[in-house]
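Example record

The entry below shows one chain as it appears in the dataset: sequence first, then structure tokens.
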Amino acid sequence: MTIKVIVAGAGGNLGHHIVSALDDDHRFTVTILARASSKSKFPSHITVHRVDDYYPELEVVEAFKGQDVVISTVTTGAIQRQKTLIDAALKAGVGRFIPSEFGHDTRNGNASKMLPQMYQQKREVVEYLRAKQNDGLEWTAFVTGPFLEVAIENFLGFNLSQQHATILNEGSDRWSATTRATVGLAVKNSLLIPEKTSNRYLFIDTVTASQNDVLLALRKMTGTEWGVDYVDAEEQKRVAIEHLSKGRLIGIPMLMRYITCVRGYGGDYLDYETSANEILSLPVRNVDEVIASILKG
């Protein structure tokens, strides 16, 4: 008997990795919920339900009927619309909902104050799911840290083409990150052991490292010295907040780097939470291996 899963937001930054992991396993049947305006292309053998961009409940309920699991990978701008998806899942008789929580530990109050549009809204969705547990809808939320192969250059401070690093403070604070392929595997495997993964956060990583660890691996894998700027983290935060106050979006990646790489803002979630890597049968990899695979593309 196969597990029927429908993925919302499958055309985004993470969605196709989850779809691929499920689609490659004969124990799952995958369907996609897509916005009518979406230009994303999906494998021809996968059924796609297209609905209005605002996810009208009646249309979504119809798409969700017969599904065992709903996985949401919608973007930040659509986070609050997940409540409509959750209500539709309940009405359609879906058994489990996985929200678009993937990323940092949104429960961290310090980080939430800095980027409420990214943290508070996600946390509110999980609280909404908690309130629905007694109605028969289970949930699982994944804390993954940043998607390493994307974030390494986008905001973690490493310019791969110029071989230059921007390091906060001494670069020794450790944080966790996960590749998108590993996230896809974790989501898939969580559905195979529902009794161990229901109604809880799961904390996973591909690597737990510091900026210095990543820089050392980059130097080793490229065979070059790399240039480095060591900058004051608090000054970087001040500049980022000033940018945002003036509507300059460059402040967001600067704050994301701070939240990830400075201890106390949730980037170090595996220092205070138990890793789910083992129960999810995730591969063990070291920093050198992961950086080498990123450099190969």
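Notes for this example: The longest strand covers residues 28-35. The chain has a mean pLDDT of 96.
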